[in-house]
Amino acid sequence: MYGARLYGRPRSVPVSSLLPRAEPAVALTIAACAAAALLLRLYELSRPGDLLGVTEYDDGVLFGNALRLVSGAVPYRDFAVVQPPGSVLLMTPVALLAKVTGTAWGLAIARILTVCADTANVILLGVLVRHRGAFTVGVACGLYAVYPDALIAAHTFLLEPWLNLCCLAGAVLIFDGDRMAGTAPRPGHGPRAARTAADTRRLVLGGVAFGFAVAVKIWALLPLALAVLLLAVTARRRRPVGALAAGAALGLGVPLLPFAVLAPGALLRDVLVSQLVRNANGSRDLSGRLADVSGLQLLPAGYPQHLLLLLIGAVVAGLVAAGYLARERRPRMLDAYALLGAVAVTAMLLWPRLYYSHYGAFEGPFLALAVALPAGLLTARPDAGRAKEAALPAVVAAVLVTVLVTVLVAMGVGQFRAESGTRGIQVTAEADRLIPPGACVVTNDAPFTVVADRFFSSRPGCPAMVDPFGTFFAMTGGDERHSSAVVLAPVVALWHTTLEQATYVWLTGDTVAQIPWNSGLYGYFRRHFRLIGLAGQPVPSRDVPRPGLYLRN
């Protein structure tokens, strides 16, 4: 009953007590979808090499940033970090634990926590739409549970699951059923002072969640701006907007402040260049990205991609029209947030030139809501402003659910096949033999030193660089491949200093996008380092060392 009894109290009440209790069918649906999501994500980690092996570049860098922080190095000031500091702070407790367990198990714990965070996203989606009934909850939670790009992002420590967690927590706090806190309340819900105080607390706490989401990844500015816009349009007073904005400023400002004080210029350069200028490379394959977001990339080659995209678009548009127009019901605030968010996030993902599949995980919650909310209306009838199920025959509803679940499971199975080729490389044994503990190791691929427990160095003055690609990118204004010698000079000088301080250099793959090799830098490397193991195939580039582990002469 949306906390109707509590509103009758003369004093303010806790925000948590204003949340409606879920009906048994809704609670069971959320639990079932969360269990399925957890099993799917744990299955990914159970495959050989995926828990304790090297599977990504980004996870080692993101976790390595936290490892550097607990070792006394300051992000942005002592080494480049191309993301806001939220992920560093999230993983700081795990990084401290890694000093005891070793960095390989530290990264494994970070991966398990990411699985838990993405499973919590399923629960938060269910909580957000629980007032619409079990069918709507099942569609929303089920879609996200097996959404392909969410599975990609959750297989290791990446930002999108944590970004979604913060944004969904903010949405759960600021939405009270279909309305937003601070807008016109439903009649008969107690004294105005109690309602206002409770709504203000919800908006502040929701703003804090959205603000910290921005500290994890600046993409969260989009759903935050959308929430502020909807609140500004519908609220009768400015106070609710101010409460949401104040909470967001607090949630962003607290984690940002220490780094802004210690390295303001580097913070702006590293983060803004990475996020706003990294469009310089790559190409905009719009149909390919739409196929990725919709799950079509999992189908075999040769399928009519454009036709299927048009078909999916027509089905979604028809679903929305049937849910709102045929029911003669305008989208409410939650519906507007979901639909506008889905369109805005899709446009955001289509714009940059650089794109990876795990980016699409940010689309997952909005896509799930945009489909589930109108679909739920088709199985409900209005009754005093509340949705109750069973307007359609039970048989038809069962068929719809069966088809949906079949499609989602097929997408999930396809995702497992697509992910089977990840780099589950076990390097610990060979690295243990060749590299003594505490040695100063410089690498272009941080996950290898993290997995091999050779990330920490006991030697003072060992270089703190974690992300060579991000460092190169930030120092060249986002166009490292086409920069002039003058622009590259500071990067070359940095690498000269780095190599001078290193005892071991561990190179993997082609390093031209990470290290600005020129005749002077390559000549220094050849004179002072020799290959001792972990050798890979020579790269096609000229005057570039082959992959392998090198020891100072």
Describe what you observe in this structure.
Strands 5-6-8-7 form a four-stranded mixed beta sheet. Helix 9 runs parallel beside helix 11 (239-262), helix 10 packs antiparallel against helix 15 and helix 15 packs antiparallel against helix 16. 59% of the residues lie in helices and 5% in strands. Mean pLDDT is 84; it is low at 1-13, 15-20 and 383-398. It has 553 residues and is mainly alpha-helical. The chain has helices at 4-7, 24-46, 58-70, 86-101, 103-128, 134-145, 148-154, 159-174, 192-216, 221-234, 239-262, 264-276, 286-294, 305-324, 333-350, 364-378, 394-419, 428-434, 446-451, 468-475, 485-501, 519-528, and strands at 175-176, 179-180, 380-383, 386-389, 441-443, 504-507, 529-533, 548-552.
List keywords for this structure.
single chain; mainly alpha; 2 domains
Short synopsis of the structure:
The protein has helices at residues 4-7, 24-46, 58-70, 86-101, 103-128, 134-145, 148-154, 159-174, 192-216, 221-234, 239-262, 264-276, 286-294, 305-324, 333-350, 364-378, 394-419, 428-434, 446-451, 468-475, 485-501, 519-528; strands at residues 175-176, 179-180, 380-383, 386-389, 441-443, 504-507, 529-533, 548-552.
Estimate what percentage of residues fall within beta strands.
5-15%
Number of H- or I-type helical stretches: 22
Give the end-to-end Cα distance, rounded to a whole number of Å.
75 Å
Sheet with the most strands, sense and barrel status: 4 strands, mixed
Please count the beta strands (DSSP E, at least 2 residues each): 8
* Poorly predicted segments: 1-13, 15-20, 383-398
Mean pLDDT equals 84
Classify the secondary structure makeup into a structural class: mainly alpha
Percent of residues in helices comes to 55-70%
How would you describe the shape? globular
